[in-house]
Amino acid sequence: MTAVSAPSTGEASPETTAGDTGAEARRRRTFAVISHPDAGKSTLTEALALHAEVISAAGAVHGKGGRRGVTSDWMDMERERGISVTSAVLQFSYRNQVINLLDTPGHGDFSEDTYRVLAAVDAAVMLLDAAKGLEPQTLKLFDVCRDRGVPVLTFVNKWDRPGREPLELLDEVEQTIGLRPMPITWPVGIAGDLHGLVERADGRFHRFTRAAHGAAKATSQVLDADRAAVEEGPDWQRAVEELALLDEIGAGYDEQAFAAGTATPVMFGSALSNIGVARLLDALVDLAPPPGPRPDQKGEPRPVEAPFSGLVFKVQASMDRSHRDRVAFVRVCSGRFERGMVLTHDATGRPFATKYAQAMFGRDRSTISEAFPGDIVGLVNATALRPGDTLWAEQPVTFPTIPSFAPEHFAACRVADMSKTKQFRKGIEQLDSEGVIQVLSSDLRGDQAPVLAAVGPLQFEVVSARLADEFSAPVKLDRLDYSLARRTDPAGAEALRSAVGIEVLTRRLDGELLALFPHKWRLQAVAQNNPDLLLAPLVADA
Ligand code: G4P
């Protein structure tokens, strides 16, 4: 295990009281960036780290373009495709606050992973490309935020190159997702010719000198409106007119609407040139909510000052080839976490020792001695923990489990070399419990040939690569012709047993019976002919 120094900030004294826990919680901002691939998430994360005092040694975020990666590079596939499959956590301090930035995989095939990450944050930054506006993956992720009640801040990126009109972009946000935009800065100069940003609250102009390729912070000069009018001429005039229009339609800042998820503060900038990035950090500190009471399964809120509780939102193995271990990522929901404390694993009632608690920064790890609500703790070799599990101390609590997505891709999986059957079983069990893929089985298919169910086909590649690499069990995958699953019961399973082109399988993780259909027309026909049959949608298409 890599022993690295403990985080330098975010630590309180050992005699922390409940009141201190509350104060520490109020210092935390835990968020994720949601965006379509290529909108600039990695660039923005790097730029944010540049403005902050990074608690871990960060470097760059992805392994893209030869940059060193904060995100783990445990898998060649990740490197080859330039996509981030795993989620990293970055913790830094800014204005004496502790910011936890959770990375989300950019590719849509891993939305389930993203969904879990969004269960662990208090806010999200929706990153838009100024030329492209709302893109499909952004829309999908935004829907998850809306479902989970996560407040969203919007950052319109790439304003340093040609793009759309700011008003048009805001209109798109409002019309397409029904989120009322509340700009807090406004660009002076069209996209591609950005001079700076007006701070809407005080009307002052922040003029930027571009930073070359994110190498250094962009410097800015603050001008009052009169001077800006003289020096910026028509560009200033245009910005003033657009702001007046916004005032007329009442796009002022409304804290309650933001918290309720019906409005979004909007900022403009360029992650690459480091423009508007510090403003985004300020907005996170000033506007985004700190960790608050989290409702348990019955809807009862658990205050942040209550004894420790945490939610496992991700389980991941082999982030580092030299470790080959399994890490459970836990979001602290209440109380103070102290390494070595013995917790209760709510699902089994068993004690769970936290000797190997670590702060995880992709492949960098540091031993963590304590953590507070909003922080993310990595528990190493946590074989019993699954995504959605609750851990607690002193006072029992069960947080609602994280719903799984409806799979749309299915493949029969068998080991290529029969002498590796044992390794294959072990590997499948492990990937199933990590939530990398859903594993379905039936008496007919037997234990040796489970069906893998995925939200996106790239998940199959991850499974294949990991089974071959980590478990020495290369597999053969045969894609099946099913495209949707419905939940059914034993009576439904019996009724569908002889139906052509339909198969009923058991989901191993929870014993749920899933009926697989080739297409929605077949489902519709079966449902029409058998109105009493239980064919319930799974979460994502509910
Ligand atoms: P992602 O993580 O959301 O997929 O996006 P990433 O940061 O990798 O950015 C995608 C591309 O967009 C990169 O260019 C990046 O440099 C560029 N980019 C990000 N922010 C800005 C911005 O504010 N302005 C401009 N002009 N470009 C931006 P690339 O050529 O694909 O990669 P690279 O070789 O620069 O790494």
Provide a descriptive summary of the structure in words:
This protein is α+β, with helices and mostly antiparallel strands. It has three domains: 19-58 and 78-290, Rossmann fold; 295-392, Elongation Factor Tu (Ef-tu), domain 3 (Beta Barrel); 409-529, Peptide chain release factor 3, domain III (Alpha-Beta Plaits, 2-Layer Sandwich), CATH 3.30.70.3280. It contains 13 helices and 31 strands. The strands form six sheets. An eight-stranded mixed β-sheet has the order 2-3-4-1-5-6-12-7, with helices on both faces. Strand 13 and strand 14 form a beta hairpin. Helix 4 (111-118) packs parallel to helix 5 and helix 10 crosses helix 11 (458-471). It starts with 17 loop residues before the first helix and ends in a 13-residue tail after the last helix. Guanosine-5',3'-tetraphosphate binds at residues 35, 37-43, 64-65, 106, 157-158, 160-161, 270-272. The site of guanosine-5',3'-tetraphosphate (G4P) has 18 residues, from helix 2.
Write the layout of secondary structure elements.
Blueprint: H1 18-26, E1 28-35, H2 41-51, E2 53-54, H3 76-81, E3 89-94, E4 97-102, H4 111-118, E5 123-129, H5 136-148, E6 152-157, H6 166-177, E7 180-183, E8 185-188, E9 196-199, E10 205-209, E11 219-223, H7 225-248, H8 255-259, E12 263-268, H9 277-287, E13 294-295, E14 301-302, E15 309-317, E16 326-334, E17 337-338, E18 342-345, E19 350-353, E20 357-361, E21 364-367, E22 370-371, E23 376-380, E24 390-392, E25 409-415, H10 421-434, E26 438-441, E27 451-454, H11 458-471, E28 475-479, E29 484-488, H12 490-496, E30 503-507, E31 513-517, H13 520-529
Parallel strand pairs: 1-4, 1-5, 5-6, 6-12, 7-12
Antiparallel strand pairs: 2-3, 3-4, 8-9, 9-10, 10-11, 13-14, 15-16, 15-24, 16-23, 17-22, 18-19, 18-24, 20-21, 20-23, 25-27, 25-28, 26-27, 26-30, 29-31, 30-31
Helix pairs in contact: 4-5, 10-11
This protein binds guanosine-5',3'-tetraphosphate (G4P).
